[in-house]
Design a protein that fits this description.
By secondary structure, the protein is an alpha+beta fold. It has one domain: Aminopeptidase (3-Layer(aba) Sandwich), CATH 3.40.630.30. It is built from 7 helices and 8 strands, in the order αβαααβββαβαββαβ. It has an 8-stranded mixed beta sheet with strand order 6-7-5-4-3-2-1-8, with helices on both faces. Pfam families: Acetyltransf_1. Keywords: Transferase. It comes from Kribbella kalugense. This is Acetyltransferase (GNAT) family protein. GO terms for molecular function: acyltransferase activity, transferring groups other than amino-acyl groups.
């Protein structure tokens, strides 16, 4: 492993200028990873409209980068309901199972809470056992409903590693991002949790 790979990715807010690099990351994913995230074919390269929805949602989007290469994406967007935010993330194959997904979901969750979210929504393929375990482990109080091959989880809005939302933790997460990039070092370790396929 070279020195560049040992440095943790940096997480920052995403925007339209990230479209080409995000398209490259999505195109390098396996068909199964893309299916678990989108529940449909997205094409390779993905359509511009999809990229713009991922980068400029009705909420906020974040990317993780190594050098200038995007290795992860997370977002939140307002869902039906006054204060429900849907959380979603996707991580490059080489970065999966190392905690980056949880780190990015924590950042997205903190941002959504600071915007007023009181509940989180996760839509997960019933075949995506790792993501289902992650949601149940990190948000054990979540309720779940099944609709065909999809499971819809609704949980109280809190950070995935906190028993309840603590304002000082949320303020620290959001404040770090407002100052620019933050390192993902605190979460990078081998683990079974992967990002929800939403």
């Amino acid at each position: 492993m070279n020195q560049t790979q040992t440095r943790p990715p940096l997480v920052r807010r995403a925007g339209e200028p990230d479209a080409d690099e995000l398209a490259r990351m999505l195109s390098r994913l396996t068909d199964l990873s893309r299916y678990f995230r989108f529940q449909t074919a997205i094409g390779s390269p993905p359509r511009e409209a999809l990229l713009l929805r991922m980068l400029c949602p009705a909420g906020a989007a974040f990317v993780a980068t190594r050098e200038d290469t995007i290795v992860g994406h997370a977002m939140w967007a307002w869902a039906p309901g006054d204060t429900t935010a849907e959380l979603a993330a996707i991580i490059g194959e080489e970065e999966q199972r190392r905690g980056l997904g949880i780190r990015m979901l924590s950042i997205a969750a903190a941002d959504a809470i600071s915007a007023g979210a009181t509940h989180f929504l996760f839509v997960v393929s019933a075949a995506n056992e790792r993501s289902i375990r992650m949601v149940r482990r990190r948000w054990p109080e979540a309720t779940v409903e099944r609709d065909g091959t999809l499971l819809t989880f609704v949980a109280p809005a809190r950070l995935p590693d906190q028993p309840e939302e603590r304002p000082n933790v949320v303020d620290k997460q959001v404040g770090s991002l407002q100052r620019g990039e933050v390192t993902a070092a605190g979460e990078l370790r081998p683990m079974d949790d992967v990002v929800p396929a939403l």
